[in-house]
Amino acid sequence: MILRLWNDCCLAIGAAVDHETDTQQFMLPITLPMIFAIYVGVSAVNNPHGPLAFWCSLIPFTSPIVMMVRIPFEVPLWEKLLSIALLVGTFVGVTVFAAKIYRTGILMYGKKVNYKELWKWLRY
Length: 124
Description:
Distance between the termini: 27 Å
Number of domains: 1
Number of strands: 0
Structural class: mainly alpha
Number of helices: 6
Radius of gyration: 17 Å
Helix content: over 70%
């Protein structure tokens, strides 16, 4: 599921830019949650039921990594189901946003895109 979520984010970025070099400005907000999740996962080994591990196992962009670290430490079933439900809901939302960006961005050619422009595309 996280790979599909990652793939949809990358597809939206790919549709928004013309050249491969322009994607670098948009990749940082996508990679930061994954790097943060790895650090929280390492921390969760020491304290798997702490507040940081709990909340990061529910946040959809960090939950696949952190929850996989927490599962061997007997996580309650409701936390697992809530994490899955939030992840699926976020996947659907990101797919809708990626489709909106793709619909508008694929028709644009030669225009430099920034975050303000992407926000406009999401509202079309």
